[in-house]
């Protein structure tokens, strides 16, 4: 997994990337890609994003959200950016089906 950050800090050990709520409290968000990438999607939902700092939310959107894979349909196991590039109509359909996932519009 390649993660780019604006700072020179190591994102895996950056205390600003540690969750302070939820079932993964105390865990670094970078670790969630391997454990539960759907939780990253949840973190960006209106319900959970209110608990994220602006910097953490920005980091998740820029570095992690694009690596979440669909778990259903004809594009199962593909990332959202791949689906958007190979099947733009399907991606637009996804956006309509998931209005609570506003972060998808920024991919």
Structure description:
- By secondary structure, this protein is an all-alpha fold.
- The protein starts with 31 loop residues before the first helix and ends in a 10-residue tail after the last helix.
- The longest helix is centred in the middle third of the chain and has 11 residues, at 54-64.
- The relative contact order is 0.13.
- The protein is elongated and about 40 Å long.
- It has one domain (11-106).
- Helix 5 (80-86) packs across helix 6.
- Residues 1-13 have low confidence and may be disordered.
- The protein is built from 6 helices and no strands.
Structural key phrases:
single chain, mainly alpha, 40% helix, elongated
